[in-house]
Specification:
single chain, about 90 residues, mainly beta, three-stranded antiparallel β-sheet, two-stranded antiparallel sheet, 7 strands, globular
């Protein structure tokens, strides 16, 4: 999730204990800024269509309202993704 979005919706965030490199699903490094994840949010409760999700987000230096969903999240919640409109439905 972007730092701008985190500050706008007033989520708490903190330094990660263990830093790690950004990589693709196949393990290849992602060349983005300095390639490291430094911050994460505190646990966040999200209620979406009668489903409650408790998760945390890694903080990335993305644009205003952008987020990157990780494979474990996608596998667990199996959202419907419309790639044309860029909408995600859980």
């Amino acid at each position: 999730m972007s730092l701008i979005a985190i500050k706008r919706i007033k989520l708490s965030y903190r330094q990660k204990e263990s830093l790690y490199l950004l990589v693709t699903i196949s393990g290849d490094p992602i060349l983005y800024r300095n390639d490291m994840i430094y911050f994460k949010t505190e646990l966040v409760k999200i209620d979406i269509k009668r489903k409650t999700i408790i998760t945390l987000f890694n903080v990335l230096l993305l644009g205003k309202d952008k987020a990157v969903l990780e494979m474990p999240f996608l596998q667990e919640f199996n959202p419907k993704i419309d790639w044309i409109t860029r909408e995600v439905e859980i």
